[in-house]
Amino acid sequence: MRCEQWEERIALHAGGDVTGGDAAQVERHLAECAPCREFSRELLEVLALLRGGHADRIPAGAYTAVRARVMAAIERRRRLWTLAWACAAAAILLAGAGLRREMRVEPVRQVALAPPGPAPLAPVRAAHARPAPKQRRRRALSGAAHRPETIVVKLETDNPDVVIYWIAEMKGAN
Amino acid sequence: MSAPGLMTLAHSLDAAAADGPGAFEQAMRRHERLVLITALRLLGNLPDAQDAAQEVFLRLYRHRRMLESPALASWLYRVTVNVCHDLARRRPAGELEGEPAAEAPDPQQQMVEAERRRVLRMSLRVLPEKERAALVLRDLEGLSTTDVAHILGSSEATVRSQISKARVKVRDFVERYFRRRS
Lengths: 174, 182
Known about the structure:
The complex is a heterodimer. Chain A is mostly helical. Chain A has three domains: 4-55; 59-103; 115-174, no CATH class. Chain A is 57% helix and 9% strand. Chain A contains five helices and two strands, in the order αααααββ. A two-stranded antiparallel ribbon of chain A has the order 1-2. The termini of chain A are far apart. Chain B is an all-alpha fold. Chain B has two domains: 1-92, Rna Polymerase Sigma Factor, Chain: A; 106-182, Winged helix-like DNA-binding domain superfamily/Winged helix DNA-binding domain (Arc Repressor Mutant, subunit A). The chains are: A mainly alpha, B mainly alpha. Chains A and B meet through helix 1, helix 3 and helix 4 of A and helix 2, helix 3, helix 5, helix 6 and helix 8 of B.
């Protein structure tokens, strides 16, 4: 019968896990105890058997299969990420376009201050010109709301002696 | 494997640490034996070990910065042990499958190797999970007790206790196995 109190130390010794004074103690005991010596020898044999089995090569196909599965999974993940990024970018662009449409300011009607063409040749009245008596009476009846607004635009030319006045009357501006 | 051994193994990957899938595949080739055979010893059959190895390498891909770390081998062992632990919990232990092996040229040699692998698989199966992990890393993969303790997140004293118990149990199993056969 092997000695139970030595079992753990002999097992460690068999794998080279006991050093120094402890190793010397175990070796002294093994020298004196035949059952423990037999136990130690069997342990060494079993460890050699296990290491031999462990050293046997696995067929290359087993590694190739793992590699192929890993690379396929990585590629799948990469495609998913690409798709996710594309979707996110498209969503951002769409959201941006929608926001711009919401924020667009309606064009404001602007009154042109400069005439596109030459000044009108038709006779015009200056702002201070007095209207005809008939017209004056009609204006007085209709009130200030219907008074036409007169715009006078001074256009300077290259010739300092020539100044063009463009006078327009806007009817129903109010 | 001692700490310098682990560092040498890890540093060999420096050149392959680029981000591209091709470089990663090269890195995988360098470490596939470590991962697959450790998983095979811990789980006992090749299909489960391949699933575990796949998961380990996908985790490595997510943590590609580890490719430049001197602690890469240690990290791979730890992740392999953890992945195998999770897989073993999710899947009940099935029947032992014959482990496919690279064919030896001599039929007699083939029989000897097949028997050896069978004994190895069966004897590891009689061990509790933690003792099995300690024995696989220390006695089969040849790591130091310090490295094994670091990988398993245990103290060296605990690992020494697990290793000695595992060795005794395996020796008893092998003795019974051959006694029955003879």
